[in-house]
């Protein structure tokens, strides 16, 4: 039987990461690259911006919808009313703040459709807002229940983990769209802009992977317990699977960075990189589905505690 809460959590993580990643990719990767290549006013660049707007708006709408399902499913599981959970719990208060932030982000996208200058404070604020939307999910999982100083460390690590995840995984679909545009358009200046954007995203990916590794170790120390618990508990087994898939993505990204990105002006390399990006998107979705399941399971460290 499908657990509605697990499905809602996984869908919500994926939707939020999609919106956050698209916002980050546009203002940290694509727009600076377009300016460098002097193609920011081209029809191709404008069409790409419209595609990113759709990704952001669909992601935000999906996040709001799946968040509502998550709230109802959680209330059903604990035997409460959704309205009470929303208004009388810390989880609900965070959910209200995230809803307001999602609406503000959607309004920003719709009201700034013709403004492409990525140096403005409004666009920096959009990136910060997107990061806050993703990072605030740290208060919806196990980190929210960790008390004291360890809890502060746990939540800080979780915020960094979530934001880095969105910047990398959420940026893969925008990257694929950009590469697909490059394959369809033979304009040399646009190709140069795509190469610059890909290199910028590669650098962002390195920073994201490093952050994921460090914050993931902190989270594992908090939740996994001893190594034996990784094998003896459902939580530990899913966590191991998540790590294996993550390492596969890192290996594929390293191959892309070392072999394909330097040859990106050739259509063959661009085509292979686009294909690899789709593979990474698929693996990333599986990882986010696992994250959805981990949040409703007792941590391995708790299951490994001796019974009294």
Fold and architecture overview:
- This protein is mainly alpha-helical.
- The protein has a single domain (4-303), classed as Formate dehydrogenase/DMSO reductase fold.
- The chain is built from 11 helices and no strands.
- The chain has helices at residues 4-37, 43-78, 82-88, 90-111, 121-135, 148-184, 188-223, 227-232, 234-260, 267-294, 300-303.
- α2 (43-78) runs antiparallel to α4 (90-111).
- Residues 304-308 have low confidence and may be disordered.
Produce a short descriptive summary:
The protein has helices spanning 4-37, 43-78, 82-88, 90-111, 121-135, 148-184, 188-223, 227-232, 234-260, 267-294, 300-303. It is an all-alpha fold and 308 residues long.
Which characteristics define this entry?
single chain, 308 residues, mainly alpha, 11 helices, globular, disordered C terminus
Number of separate helices: 11
Which CATH architecture?
Up-down Bundle
Q: Give the H and E element order.
A: HHHHHHHHHHH
Q: Can you tell me the CATH class?
A: Mainly Alpha
* N-to-C CA distance: 32 Å
Low-confidence runs: 304-308
CATH topology: Formate dehydrogenase/DMSO reductase fold
What's the topology here?
Layout: H1 4-37, H2 43-78, H3 82-88, H4 90-111, H5 121-135, H6 148-184, H7 188-223, H8 227-232, H9 234-260, H10 267-294, H11 300-303
